[in-house]
Amino acid sequence: MTNDVFPGDPTLRSTAEAMDATDPLAPFRSEFHHGDPEQCYLDGNSLGKLPLATIESVANFVTQEWGSELVGGWSHWIDEAQVAGDLLARATLGAGPGQTLVCDTTSVNFYQLALAAIEALPERSTVIIDSANFPTDRYILEGIARARDLKLITLDTDGSGGPGSVRVQVQNERVTAEALAPYLDDSVALVTLQAINYRSGARPELKEITEAVKSVGAYMLWDCSHAGGAIDLDFDGNGIDLAVGCTYKYGNSGPGSPAWMFVRQSVQDQLRVPIQGWFAQEDQFVMGPYFEKAQGIRGFQTASPSIVGIRAVQASYEIIERAGIATIERKAALGTQLMIALVDAWLTPLGVTLGTPREADHRGGHIIIRHPDAEKIALALRKIANVIPDYRQPDAIRLAISPLPTSYQEVWDGFDRLRDLMASGDYHGVEPESSRVT
Ligand SMILES: Cc1ncc(COP(=O)(O)O)c(C=O)c1O
């Protein structure tokens, strides 16, 4: 994708206006709450905006279901982790029903599936992750490896090292099947990577990597937190068997909304999650003395689903399903292309470098720009320019287009303000904040 995909010069606001005028997703913007119309919210990859339908759906649940049905409600709430999972899989994963649960957190689901995969191959002793992976995945896998005395290989793609690190040469933290190949053999039980890297925004080769890992008889577990709702993951086409992700980023389901796990039907009988809770029991309400894993995806569910959280997930993924994930991915590609064009035209002369692949099919809905003063600039964007990005160590500012609530004009305005802020040097005077969150 190059600059000729735009209807005009990308440095002119009129070009962003023209892009909005022909955007098939433009009408969806009005389905979201926009608290401050002047704000450029470019952080939908961290926490998505509130869909208006969610307000009604959650309020109705609280008053009309919980409030009036009380415990009787469980007769129809009981399987909602699966009902919501089927919707989420249909809308964003490209996978059929009976393979997805909306439950728990990404971290817990990651632990569950990583350990299930490792225990399914007891004669194997190696697990592989990358150094640019999200911290929770790295820390959890390190804990599992320590407890089980496994060999942990960390593919060092960003120079940060980590347990068992081996340096691999890749661009923008983007692992390839070729880079992974030297570490794959029949000692490997599990490889885990992100479908979109949380920092660089790089999208690895989902199909090629999955095939390579499966060809040595190991399991491949994808963390799709930054991919779900931004790109067409096509689990069936890519042969993906195991995956986890959150719903609060491009899923717009709210802070701490329940996450999801995906276990392909063909591997469900091979795997048992370590937390074998009562929802996974075949005869759940017999409450007998021994655990017997339920058939199907319920055999992976631990405990009572958060119905209020699930209602937010349902309201939001119904919008995604209506919009169509292929259309969403196209807008993510074009919106990030607009950002890259503005980086090239405006920010490179100010000392910024792009940390995200230029090929649209090698990235998702966000980019990062690198600058030695990134932390201060990100803070000043929020405090002075009313632009919301986020900052990631050591020198990265993340900027996203969330295709349903974000317009191209909002992206353009955000970058225009960023250029002014950097060119004026006004960000130097910004006072640091005491928040733990960046
Ligand atoms: C890639 C990735 N994995 C895991 C998580 C952690 O999610 P949770 O707090 O729901 O466990 C995040 C959070 O942002 C993430 O970006």
Radius of gyration: 22 Å
Measured as a percent range, the helix fraction is 25-40%
Instruction: Output the number of helix runs.
Output: 14
CATH class of the largest domain: Alpha Beta
By CATH's scheme, which homologous superfamily of the largest domain applies?
Answer: Type I PLP-dependent aspartate aminotransferase-like (Major domain)
Give the strand order of the largest sheet, numbering strands 1, 2, ... along the chain: 2-9-8-7-6-3-4-5
Bound molecules: pyridoxal-5'-phosphate
Q: H/E series, N to C?
A: HEHHHEHEHEEHEHEHEEHHHEEHEEEH
- Helix and strand content put the structural class at alpha/beta
- The count of strands amounts to 14
What is the oligomer described by this structure? single chain
Any low-confidence stretches, pLDDT <50, length ≥5? none
What's the architecture of the largest domain in CATH terms?
Answer: 3-Layer(aba) Sandwich
Q: Based on CA inertia axes, which overall geometry fits? A: globular
Q: Looking at CATH, which topology of the largest domain would you report?
A: Aspartate Aminotransferase, domain 2
Major β-sheet profile: 8 strands, mixed
Percent range for β-strand residues: 5-15%
Structure description:
- This protein has 438 residues and is α/β, with parallel strands linked by helices.
- It folds into two domains: 3-31 and 324-429, Aspartate Aminotransferase, domain 1 (Alpha-Beta Complex); 56-322, Aspartate Aminotransferase, domain 2 (3-Layer(aba) Sandwich).
- 37% of the residues lie in helices and 13% in strands.
- It is built from 14 helices and 14 strands.
- The protein has helices at 13-21, 52-69, 74-77, 80-93, 106-120, 135-148, 177-180, 206-215, 235-238, 265-268, 307-323, 325-347, 374-383, 408-424, and strands at 40-41, 100-102, 126-130, 151-156, 165-167, 188-194, 219-223, 242-245, 260-263, 353-354, 366-370, 387-388, 390-392, 396-400.
- The strands form three sheets. It has an eight-stranded mixed sheet with strand order 2-9-8-7-6-3-4-5, with helices on both faces. Strands 10-11-14-13 form a four-stranded antiparallel sheet, with helices on one face.
- Helix 2 (52-69) runs antiparallel to helix 11 and helix 5 (106-120) packs parallel to helix 6 (135-148).
- It is globular.
- Pyridoxal-5'-phosphate (PLP) binds next to helix 5 and helix 6.
